[in-house]
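Hey, resending since the last one bounced:
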Amino acid sequence: MQEENDKVGNVSQSRYEEIVAELRDVVEKEKHGQFTIGDRALEIEPMRERGGFVTVDPEFSVAASMRRLAEDIGKTASTVTGLRWTASRWPEEHRHQAAASFTVYRILASIENDAERFAAILSPPKGKRRWTTDDASRRTGQKVEHPVSPQEKITAIHTLAQDDHVAATITGDLLKRPQVAAKVPTEDKARVVEEFTRDEAVAAKTATHLLQRPDVAFKAMSDDTARFQVNHAQNERHKQSRQHFEDTSPVAPVVRKMERTAEFLDLVTACHSFVAAAGRTVPGLRDRQLDENEADLVHQNVARVRATLDWIEQAVDTGKVDMDDELARLLRSE
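The structure tokens again:
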């Protein structure tokens, strides 16, 4: 029963260890073979100093030589070129001091300093006896195959999302998760919304949905610029609708005459409403003494009402509806 529980895949733990030992020998021989290919490629084309001489004739260039060698041994040119470079970074005496695959040597070859590189191959990560390819990638700051840390996972996602369509799909899916959206800083959320709403149609639809939420609408209208733009848009829409009606409707002249009558009725109704409201409210002040602040406020409003009544009389008698600066100031409660 114990052996059953210790199985790795379809084999026992002991058989698995035998397989690992066998394959490590294979990997070691493979490492030797790959270094051999790299050495022979170096013999054909030694590494050159940066900025060194480069022949003009491409027939004798490094790329041409590596391509010819690759074709003759059944490898790709990029493989042979990579083996040549890795071999140049690991002199013979530093290749077999550590039990590591050729892939690990290739990854650690990117360490620029020779002494640091040679020391690194002898120093696997703490708690491990040999290098893994992911450990080597972490040591050199390269992308790992099996990300573990949050940053490695972020890097992996960025790599997978280089295609714009994939990135858009991932972003949409992630933002549908409330737990994810909640952790995004407010400033970043605002920038995301701004980017998504650069399209006018999307922006209009988004704004419509948002303003249907009372708390959002209240906060938005607390901003003077936003409130002005909304009011301006309403006025412009009203003007456009009115102008379209004036230009296209055959009943526009009749409606204009009716509107004048409606304005007259609205004015009479406003006066009647004021008188009725005052008739209901003033008797309630009997035997009540207003304090100084209350009295001042009532007097200010009476002055506004009196100025408004004078304005109405002027409009009725002369047809002029312009107001002077003093009246405008009173109506603004300044």
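The mean pLDDT is 80.

Sorry for the duplicate.
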